[in-house]
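INFO batch 0412 | record 1 of 1 | parsing
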Amino acid sequence: MRKLLRPALTRRNGERLEALYTESAERESGELQALCREGPARPVPETVLRAARALLGHGREDLHPGTRFLELGGDSLSTLTFARLL
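INFO prediction complete | emitting tokens
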């Protein structure tokens, strides 16, 4: 049933969804660029948490040491991106 609704939802909300995706990508890109500049001078645990927040779109309160990557919505592609970033 959901697949049948997708075209109608895309027509109705497509522009808003695209804007949200663009906003999210820009925020992630900015944070990752800052992380690449500042990360080497920061403590490793802080850098790793900051990278995970940026890649997975989580806020400060969502992540803490000991949280599993998969619990935060990470998948195989985000895991590869995360590994390459680190």
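INFO post-check: The helical segments are 2-38, 44-56, 76-85.
INFO record closed
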